[in-house]
Records
---
Amino acid sequence: MRCRLFCGFALVLGAMQAGAAFAQAYPAKPLRLILNVTSGAVGDVVMRSAAQELARQMGQPWVVENQGGGNFVIGANACKRAAPDGYTVCMTNLAAMSLNPFVVSGLSYDPEKDFTPITNLFSQMTGLVAGGSVPANSVAELQALAVAKPGTLNFGTLGVASNADILRAWLGERWKTSMIGVPYKGMPPIVNDLLSGQIHVSWTAIGAAASHARAGKLKILVINTVVRAKRLPDVPTFEEAGLSEYPGLVWWGMVGPAGIAEPIVRRINAEVVRLFKDAKFGEFLDAQFVEPLAGTPEQFAAFMKMDRERVGQLVKKINIPRQ
């Protein structure tokens, strides 16, 4: 009996010590960071800078790999297929983890079973942005224009049933009109076509639109924040514009393939949280119009579950068909 107890304790202690030693030796080679966005997107800008800082903190390069497009399915699949050895981590977001399970037929990954939660990263300030030549300077004026000319306004999206496309459908239902969804593979080409007048409006990252708005080339009509942004004091919030029923939080997080050893998850988490709580890096994030959200793996897992339930209710309410 004593032997069984002692031997069992020794095995557990040995496993703990081995895990701790492994975590201390980690990383022994470069890490691969899969980004589920195209080059130049706000998330790409943020995480490339983060990768440089994390490389300095951990003593190994972080090699960035863009796997954007496909309504974020491409990046999720690349992450799912990676070896769970702790040397591949991936950026994920609301669309990949909360929205796609309800709108993509035959989804090739399970958001709960195929990934290891590491940490939430940041929320991204987004908003309705119109081209400079669009005769609307507020949400109310955009509504009046859409109602007066149904089916004539081109609304840039990241594909059918993407975040922006759902907002387009929601606004159309609310305003009893329609706007044409125009799909793109990434946010930078959306902004380019807003500037050129190829499309009239989109729901886009404010970090990608702010400089153009300051130059008078784009119009930020509303943002998805609780209070007005210090950098955009004249732009109303969703609530002020009468759109409070729409859940506008756009979040980004970090996961790995399922099965990464817990000591490695803890090490990566600690390094990312340390960076995202750094004052200097926080200033950089603020300049990109994003807010840090880094926390524990458990908090992130619970957050994703709650968010998936929230988005599922919205999809059901708007009656968005699976694609």
---
Amino acid sequence: MIFGGIMVRLSGVTRAQKDEEIILSWLTNKQSIHTQKQYGYTIQHFLAFTDKDLAEISVEDIQDYMKSLKLREQKISTIKVKLMIIKSLFSYCLKTGYLSLNPSVLVNNPKVNDNISQKLLSIDDVKRLMSHTDNLRDKLLIRVMFGLGLRVSEAINLTWANFSIDDEKVNLTIVGKGNKPRTVLVNPSLWQELQELRKDGIDYIFMVAKRNTPMKRNTAHNMLKRVGKKAGLGDSLSCHWLRHSHATEAIKGGCDLSLLQQSLGHSSITTTQKYLCLRKNEGSGTYVDI
């Protein structure tokens, strides 16, 4: 709180006395190094734009920042993510007592026309992608992301220790968003094919060259764009398209919605339900004969 131009900190649950300290505390709560870097960069850019301390920032400052991103022709989805990061920081500051007000709650989220139906690949499309890869590693990475519905960060960080065999069934344990573990069943044919990538002393399945380090996210994304162009599917493909496509194909095949939620690692079934609206040329009336 500011009295007479002097900053006075409210008593709270944090020792932070400076913006840099509370930002570091907030970032430390993020499990993923990638998330910490992304969030840190966004806040650094936002504060440079406002040229103010956190306690001095108003609703209009945040709105002006959003407008500046639009003028730079950034995607609405990107702007929404950046606003979400800003809201997360201010919410943390309020909860810890570092700030007495949260101006970000009065800033509305931009509406995103996220047309998932334009980001879907058929099984034949995925087969075409795999047939145009340069090596077995890339082919199996595509198959794993599509076949198991994994996020790219989950797939590239897979190790052999993530797999276990129970009663002849191959289980894969993944630590997903929010450090939440989940287990998915692996197709036996996929498991057998993955064995061709196994090397002594190597932990990661999708590693970089001969080093025991995982593939980078950018490497995976660039590979898919390159392969998509070769396969005649364009170069705008994203690894997340494979996850979307897994979900829609699973529902089309009769997968229970709660099982799909569990497999994808969604915290809310509402997120999973968005795939229900993508069943073209179908309606509940086709299931009722009178």
